[in-house]
From TrEMBL:
It catalyses: Hydrolyzes free adenine bases from 7,8-dihydro-8-oxoguanine:adenine mismatched double-stranded DNA, leaving an apurinic site. Pfam families: HHH, HhH-GPD, NUDIX_4. It is an enzyme of class 3 (hydrolase). InterPro entries: A/G_AdeGlyc_MutY, DNA_glycosylase, HhH-GPD_domain, HhH_base_excis_C, HhH_motif, MIG/MutY, MutY_C, NUDIX_hydrolase-like_dom_sf. Binds 1 [4Fe-4S] cluster. Residues 45-196 form the HhH-GPD domain. This is Adenine DNA glycosylase. Adenine glycosylase active on G-A mispairs. MutY also corrects error-prone DNA synthesis past GO lesions which are due to the oxidatively damaged form of guanine: 7,8-dihydro-8-oxoguanine (8-oxo-dGTP). One of its GO terms (biological process) is base-excision repair.
Length: 363
């Protein structure tokens, strides 16, 4: 399927959006800069969350690390700590690595074109197009979920937008629509239009300047478009966290690679196929770690929390266990567990799941 347009349709669409944008756009800090570093930061954060939730993170990052050199030089734990709560931590690690790449390979200057930006780690087509157009006025169209939705509705694209072939069609269409004179403004406009006017569930069709030409509106298909196949059901994992405590310390360890939450801190983890772990099994696991349970404290009530990630669902239970004595040194060496006091735990980067547990349990 092709959606390449005639000149009048192309001009009409661009003109309508560029007319709409200045009157409706939100005033956001990254829209007042042409600094590719600041734009890149904002885009990485906004891929993770909505504008309202992302704004404090952006302000925190740009204040803590005003230049790419500052970010590159920061310890990874500290960067993860600033990222805490945004989830999908590999993105934060990639971001940190990219900053180092920019410093080491590009002398601290972001590459100056779309094609060069694509060579940076973690910078895909969308981010490269955003930076190239917003910072350098390069005529390259961005494609994100908002843009897909707007184009699918306005131009009546009825095929699955998640299919790989669709991306090519949309890129072709968006490249036809983006004007040479105002590429940055156009990209901002179409994304903002999707974010606040042509929204997924309740688009404001009544007061929409594209209503007359909009295929979805004219054909009563606003709720049907865009067509998007459902992602595979997320698998459920059952995490049993053993919150091992002794005196005024709690044992945590840094998570290793190749699993969720890499580089973040959590408690001793016992993963099972089911949601339950009887008290007797808790004792067995502690003993397998060389620990001795202070029996009068082993039956503390457990707290259950659920955490949904993009591709898996974690059902976590926390078993608070007081130890009779500290864990042996061999266990610490083998597991990476180490005793921390409350103030130290506060400073460690942790997933939101662990953070929530800690604040609920009063550690
Ligand atoms: S008429 Fe409705 S569906 Fe069409 S572009 Fe406007 S808001 Fe979106």
């Amino acid at each position: 399927m092709s959606l390449v347009l005639t000149d009048p349709a192309r001009l009409w669409f661009s003109a309508a959006l560029l007319n709409w944008y200045p009157r409706h756009r939100r005033d956001l800090p990254w829209r007042h800069t042409r600094d590719p570093y600041a734009i890149w930061l904002s885009e990485v954060i906004l891929q993770q969350t909505r504008v309202k939730q992302g704004l404090p993170y952006y302000l925190d990052f740009i204040t803590s690390y005003p230049t790419v050199q500052d970010l590159a030089a920061a310890p990874q734990d500290e960067v993860l700590r600033h990222w805490q709560g945004l989830g999908y931590y590999s993105r934060a690690r990639n971001m940190h690595h990219t900053a180092q790449q920019v410093v080491q390979e590009y002398g601290g200057q972001f590459p100056g074109s779309y094609q060069e930006l694509l060579k940076l780690r973690g910078v895909g087509q969308y981010t490269a197009a955003a930076i190239a157009s917003f910072a350098y006025d390069e005529q390259v169209a961005v494609l994100d979920g908002n843009v897909f939705r707007v184009l699918a509705r306005v131009f009546g694209f009825t095929q699955d937008i998640a299919a790989p072939a669709s991306r090519k069609v949309f890129q072709q269409l968006a490249d036809t629509l983006i004007p040479a004179e105002q590429p940055a403004e156009f990209n901002q406009a179409i994304m903002e239009f999707g974010a606040i006017q042509c929204t997924p569930a309740k688009p404001d069709c009544l007061f929409c300047p594209l209503q007359q030409q909009c295929f979805a509106f004219q054909h009563g298909m606003v709720q049907e478009l865009p067509v998007k196949s459902k992602a595979k059901a997320a698998r459920t994992r059952y995490f049993h966290y053993l919150v091992l405590r002794h005196a005024n310390t709690v044992y945590l360890r840094k998570r290793g690679p190749k699993d969720i939450w890499e580089g973040l801190y959590d408690f001793a983890l016992h993963e099972t196929e089911s949601a339950e772990l009887p008290a007797v099994a808790v004792v067995e696991v502690v003993e397998s770690l060389g620990g001795r349970v202070a029996t009068n404290r082993a039956e503390e009530p457990v707290a259950a929390l659920r955490h949904v990630l993009s591709h898996q669902k974690v059902e976590a239970k926390f078993h608070a266990v007081w130890l009779q004595e500290p864990l042996p040194a061999a266990t610490l060496a083998a597991t990476g567990l180490a005793p921390y006091q409350a103030a130290e735990i506060e400073e460690l980067p942790k997933s939101i799941l662990i953070t929530n547990y800690i604040s609920n349990s009063g550690i």
